[in-house]
Input
Amino acid sequence: MALSIKIKTVHYSAELVLNTSIRKPQMLCMLASHDAKGDLLDKCEGNVKAAFAMMLCNRMYFLHQVHLDRSVSNLSRRFNLVNRQLPLAFTGNEQAWGFKLINMEKTPAFSFQMEVMA
Output
């Protein structure tokens, strides 16, 4: 069974599925090595799965910003090459995967203009 998580930040909104083969102690260990101050855990109010998903999405978003990959499968392959210490992203083949990125979009930019009414 897998866990589906939706994340909405200032920069992006994403949906991913975490495989149940990744246990909480493993998530905490990876979070500790990539977020030593614990900022993500604080932002997620101590929810380990949410903080772990946010860390994965932040790394995916960074790769997307740098390489401008158009498809989720290309972005997932690039993630697997760059982040070998993290669980594998689902790429469609038969390898054991840790998570699957369903969707990632940039958050729309809004602007407001104020006019003085006479």
Summary: The chain is about 40% helix and 20% strand.
